[in-house]
């Protein structure tokens, strides 16, 4: 089974370096295979690879689609969507 959801990017610069690092760091905390896409039809990109995430080039206002497959897929998708919806906050935690 695969869990999918999306959230709109609020950052004026879209998915740039800082949010990409946060997204990858969070994705790596899950066992599930996690992927993102700027379009629901893809192409889908491995969310645990910073280089690949940076290549997504999702702009401000784009719905970032997240999907995951594996043991903790629902938690992974929920956490990444929450991160995007919160606009990648600077909370001081290292995850």
UniProtKB/TrEMBL annotation:
Domain of life per record: Bacteria
Keyword Transport assigned: yes
CDD domains in the record: PTS-HPr_like (cd00367)
Xref: SUPFAM superfamilies: HPr-like
InterPro entries: HPr (IPR050399), HPr-like (IPR000032), HPr-like_sf (IPR035895), PTS_HPr_His_P_site (IPR001020)
Protein's UniProt keywords contain Coiled coil: no
Residue ranges of domain HPr in the record: 2-91
Keywords on record: Sugar transport, Transport
Coiled-coil region: none
Pfam families the record matches: PTS-HPr
Primary role: General (non sugar-specific) component of the phosphoenolpyruvate-dependent sugar phosphotransferase system (sugar PTS). This major carbohydrate active-transport system catalyzes the phosphorylation of incoming sugar substrates concomitantly with their translocation across the cell membrane. The phosphoryl group from phosphoenolpyruvate (PEP) is transferred to the phosphoryl carrier protein HPr by enzyme I. Phospho-HPr then transfers it to the PTS EIIA domain.
Annotated protein name in UniProt: Phosphocarrier protein HPr
